[in-house]
Amino acid sequence: MWDHRGGYNGGGGGGGGGGRGGGRHWHQRGGGTGRYGGGHGGGGRGGGGQGPSGDSSSGVCYGGGYTSGRGVHGGGGGGGYGGGEGGRGGSGGSGAGVSSGGSGGGALDFSPPPAAARLPADTRRAVDAYVGRFAPLVQMELDEERRQVEERLRQWPLGRLRGEGLALTELRAARRGAYLGKAVLRLAAAEGGELPFHRFTSGTLVTLCRRNPLQERCVEALVLDRGRSEVRLVADSVPADLAEGLWRLDRGANITSYQRMAQALQALYKQPGAAVPGAATAAAGAGADDDEADEEDEDGGDDGGYGGGQDAGPSGNGQGHGYGNAYGGYRGRGGGGGGGYRGRGGRGGGRGHKRRRRQQTEEEEEDNLPPGTHLLDVLLAPDAAAAAAAAALPAPLVPDAAVDWAAANDVAPRDPREEVPGMGLNRSQVRALALAMRHRLVLLQGPPGTGKTTTIVQFIRFLKQELRYPHPILAAAQSNVAVDNLLEGLLGCGVGAVRTGQPVKVREALRDATLDARILAHPARPAIEEQQDALRDLQRRLPSLRGRDRGLGHRDVARAAAALRQARAAMMADILRGADVICSTCVGAGGDTLQDLSFGLVVLDEGSQCCEPESLIPLVKASRHAVLVGDHCQLPPVCQSEAAGRAGLSLSLFERLMRAGVPACMLQVQYRMHPALSAFPSARFYGGRLLDGVAPGQRPPPPFPMPPLRAQPGTGGGAGAGDGGGGPLMFVDVEDGREEVSQGGSKSNRTEAGVVVALVRGLLGAGVSPADMGVVTPYLAQVQLLSSMLVGVVPAGAPALEVSSVDGYQGREKEVMIFSTVRANANASLGFLEDWRRLNVAITRPRRALIIVGNAATLRRGDASSGAAGRSDGFSGSSSSVSNSSSLAGLGLNGTAAGLVDTAAAVGSGGHWAAYLSWLEWRPGGLVVRGLQGLEALGWRGLGGRR
């Protein structure tokens, strides 16, 4: 718990243009020595003093960056929560926290809503602790992303931006019709031909300008799709001179996801379904009516409505709400001070505007937040046992008959591979369904190729079609690709599903199921368009009206606009409420589209890839029952801020609850890989519990030369192509390759890339389609190098060959994969490759064949020097246990292992590459070949030499 010395009843709101506060709470920005004491905003007065810079203290301050001090995430006063005179935040204090003080920009609002005052005291303290833990980490992520975008635009030369694929220049632009009501813009190279390497993919947020996005008014747009010679965008507005001159395209930053994480954290203070009292309250620092603003003293507004001994005092600012001025104080004298925890409400606000609109009431602001979750006891459980017990309570929304069926089927199957008649599922998957129906919150672990999407789809279908489950279901996932997979499966089995979000981010074949497409096809659409035309006509006539007629005209416009909004809302509600399932990304679930909808059941796919605050976004849609699907043995959440990741943001809610013992089930049968490809990951990463649902003959290696997969004496037969033919697995040892470091710090290996290009040539010559093969590598610089070297290798008119990072391939598969490991150095440094989860993802993408290209000596020695690499999660004080066991003598080709770990939580981190290489070399003849010479000795032809 917190150290409350000097901060619990003292300290102060502080911040803003002279805010005063008499207590402290984590959302106040005053001085104090409590853990969340923080510092002042510029010129603010709090318990600790005043000044243009924040005072150092022993806690966290949520100012523009995470200021340093003696606490976990720093003390000091980042100026982000109050602008000084002119709205400028002061600088942060210094010390030994996570990072140095910021300058007052980009602060998110994590303040408790008025509902917080109605929580029981113990629940309030638990929510405070939870939000106080994650709020700074989310802010750190946003700060880091914005810093990266701004830094590269300000400091990187244009050549580097182009080389990293973050900018395209010398583009011609033209309008090419419309897409779902938005303009489509086509951009192509001015000189024609193929575009250079770039990272603009469907759904990417971009800015379009002439020369410099920092100095011009830009057009914001989303990438619709891309081809070899063009990129198509969708935009709300089109420059009048679009067809003239040349244009530049840059990747932009999007803060929406962080804002929705902040709202999800705030929503934890709400009780779903609880009535909001109608009594009006005055926000601390909130402005008065326009006519009253000039009568306020220079310190700002009235005492907070929850001050004077109440539990919360909302913070205020010159603009209306949030912490000071969230973006550095664009207006007036900055924000107001936060109210005291048990003292007087904060005062502040300054005179941000002499004429300003009446602020929203606190109740209106609270209505803009999601409704919260009924699973708060699981999320806030003080220990693992309490979390497991709370999650294991009976599912509240499932009929009794289904509960009885689930109880009968929630047993460990004798043979997980046995198919259940009439369901199209194996026993392992049926048990997962049973578990999901029995308990309030369950975890379904889906290793590679085990059919987790199929299991989710059948779970939802069973509820809707067999059990007539009457409530709407929210099916969410971290990525658009996973949401599309869910949508495709649901539509395929007759479940009525609607996809929210930007249609450009949806697979083209599924776009008719998007909300936008359903709106265009809705029978009320023509009438709404007539209303819209009538409104435009009224607006056009307004300037010509005078006197009383002008006033009446404004009234008519307001009424027509309100009627149009109401009609649109009714149409959207009709579509959404008529759907069985709403499919959305996690971030999309927090959008305005679903604001008025609650979902008793939430199914979250890719749960192990979401940071915990991101997982909350769908869960705070009033969930009573949740199914989290993921695999903590694959890649964890990606964090922009290394400090935030180390402090716990890289630990997913899925993995945290898995460690706590929440009811869980692992899907045990994989249908993707040739059994020889699944043998090592099963033994090493899943304790030998991952079984094969396909025989070697169902995944025959393609017809190109590979080392034969002969049987090890005494193991009872091989798993190759049958009669000693080529097998599905090979490691190409590139002994003379050396890694290089790019301008951005990423790694590449030209010699190794040359071998990859030669392999691609050989595969194409053997008749493998580019669409059936993929190239994966841990480093962006190698992606760029390979992309450039492969230009012209794939024949014109053929499908594109996909080259991507390991992270980009998670959840996907190809018939044949080439894995370029890159690292080759005298220091035996492995970098990204030290993460055993990255190896697991990389080697489990192929169905029929895997070729790994790398420097065996570096991989083997680097593994030995890295040792066990546990990760402290900072949440429960535990860390991932690891094992250095590399004894694979008992590993056969049927996915079993003797003497290895038998739990997925205790996986070999140090030593996994050495173990893998030993396994490859273990059988007669081995599966390791030496460079291009070794490939030629195997019979590869048409390699074409190195480039």
UniProtKB/TrEMBL annotation:
Biased composition (Acidic residues): 288-302
Composition skew (Low complexity), residue ranges: 864-881
DNA2/NAM7 helicase helicase domain segment(s): 425-642
Pfam families (UniProt xref): AAA_11, AAA_12
InterPro entries cross-referenced by the UniProt entry: DNA2/NAM7-like (IPR045055), DNA2/NAM7-like_C (IPR041679), DNA2/NAM7_AAA_11 (IPR041677), P-loop_NTPase (IPR027417), SF1_C_Upf1 (IPR047187)
Annotated stretches, region: Disordered: 1-58, 83-117, 280-324, 337-374, 696-726, 862-881
Gene Ontology annotations for the cellular component aspect, listed alphabetically: cytoplasm
GO molecular function terms listed in the Swiss-Prot or TrEMBL record: RNA binding; RNA helicase activity
Biological process according to GO: nuclear-transcribed mRNA catabolic process, nonsense-mediated decay
Residue ranges with Gly residues bias: 7-21, 29-52, 83-107, 303-324, 337-349, 714-726
Annotated ranges, domain DNA2/NAM7 helicase-like C-terminal: 650-856
Biased composition (Pro residues): 698-710
Domain of life: Eukaryota
PANTHER family in alphabetical order: DNA2/NAM7 HELICASE FAMILY (PTHR10887), RNA HELICASE NONSENSE MRNA REDUCING FACTOR (PTHR10887:SF517)
Name recorded for this polypeptide: AAA+ ATPase domain-containing protein
Species annotation: Chlamydomonas reinhardtii
Lineage: Eukaryota, Viridiplantae, Chlorophyta, core chlorophytes, Chlorophyceae
